[in-house]
Amino acid sequence: MSGGEAPDGDLLARVFLTRVIEPGDEIGGRWVRELGAREVARRLRDGGAALPGASAQRWAGLRARAGRAEPARDLAVAREAGVRFVGPGEAEWPGQLDDLGDARPLGLWVRGRPSLRVWALRSVALVGARACTQYGAHMAAALAAGLAERGWVVVSGGAYGIDGAAHRGALGAGGATVAVLACGVDQPYPRGHTELITRIAEQGLVIGELPPGDHPTPSRFVLRNRVIAALTRGTVVVEAAYRSGSLVTARAAQRLGRHTMAVPGPATSGLSAGAHELLRGDAVLVTDAAEIVELIGDMGELAPDRRGPVLPRDLLEPGARRVLAALPARRAAAADEVARGAQTTEDDAIARLYELRALGYVERHGDGWKLTRESVTSVRGGRSPC
């Protein structure tokens, strides 16, 4: 199709509109919902009165873009790069994106073999700071690897820092990952991640709203985050400052009713401040993949119970533990004193004390009993006796 021809068919109209209307434009989305993609494309091509909600200046800008759009050429370029266009209502379209309402993408450009719809059904977003710490990168990679090993798809934005660590963690575990870009999917960005994004396209999926060759802008990065939030069952913020774009993703997830999670970090780190702010609200604290899956997974996918190490005294019978606890830390005590402290009879206390002596916890001092040097710290849990 040449630049002067009207779009033919809904798919071609939507391809055309990705060149004209910016991602997340709710006014443009309303036009498409009310009039259909083909009619909106026709109006933009043919001119005439502006559509509702567009000023004369904005309408002129959209018309100028429309005059340069070549949807047939975009589709041909995409095919050459191994990229396909998926529109709402098609078999591969993830239905959860419809939750965005009029901010729903006009369509998605998809690079990679797997089905986006199928992968999105069991996916989780891992996002965070670009200038992350070593701790943040380690946590992102470990969480991603753990999720991948459990059969979950890791979704992120392909950026430096936490995004890159998350993608690498999933790939390193032989798992599935999706990069959502704020530019044409045939033009990897950032350039320093060309090799990584190429590997993602080979092993997973690279998707975006913008047509081939289009470049990223600050506003497109922000608007891209709503797609990450809507596409997945939940969003995990691994490390983020107060003004991090990953907080935009988390808040979009909250508005959409998705699970929102955050990983705690040092209270003194500015790069953990944003994550901690989320945790002061409705976000759930997570520290490993099992905890994430417990929240977003199916019934029965529970994280293991957390507990400290089992100490030798934990294996004692309850009665013996009470007698042991009744012994003073710094002096010997008679059996009747120990019995009163343990709330038992003197005969029972004596029997327990002999049992504890055999185990090395106590020793006999004349007519009294005293904790052994080695057991003082053990019994008191490492605290100095008062």
Explain what this protein looks like in three dimensions:
The protein has helices at 10-20, 26-35, 37-46, 56-68, 71-80, 116-120, 134-149, 162-172, 194-203, 218-231, 245-255, 273-279, 289-296, 318-326, 335-342, 346-358, 373-379, and strands at 83-86, 108-111, 123-127, 153-156, 177-181, 205-208, 234-237, 259-262, 284-285, 333-334, 362-365, 368-371. The protein has 17 helices and twelve strands. The strands form two sheets. A nine-stranded mixed sheet has the order 1-2-6-5-4-3-7-8-9, sandwiched between helices. Strands 10-12-11 form a three-stranded antiparallel sheet. The chain is elongated. It folds into three domains: 10-76, no CATH class; 95-296, Rossmann fold, CATH 3.40.50; 312-379, Arc Repressor Mutant, subunit A, CATH 1.10.10. It has 386 residues and is an alpha/beta fold.
List its traits.
386 residues, alpha/beta, Rossmann fold, Arc Repressor Mutant, subunit A, nine-stranded mixed β-sheet, three-stranded antiparallel β-sheet, 17 helices, 45% helix, disordered N terminus, disordered C terminus
Layout: helices, strands, pairs:
Elements: H1 10-20, H2 26-35, H3 37-46, H4 56-68, H5 71-80, E1 83-86, E2 108-111, H6 116-120, E3 123-127, H7 134-149, E4 153-156, H8 162-172, E5 177-181, H9 194-203, E6 205-208, H10 218-231, E7 234-237, H11 245-255, E8 259-262, H12 273-279, E9 284-285, H13 289-296, H14 318-326, E10 333-334, H15 335-342, H16 346-358, E11 362-365, E12 368-371, H17 373-379
Parallel strand pairs: 3-4, 3-7, 4-5, 5-6, 7-8, 8-9
Antiparallel strand pairs: 1-2, 2-6, 10-12, 11-12
Helix pairs in contact: 1-3, 1-4, 1-5, 2-3, 7-8, 7-13, 10-11, 14-15, 14-16, 15-16
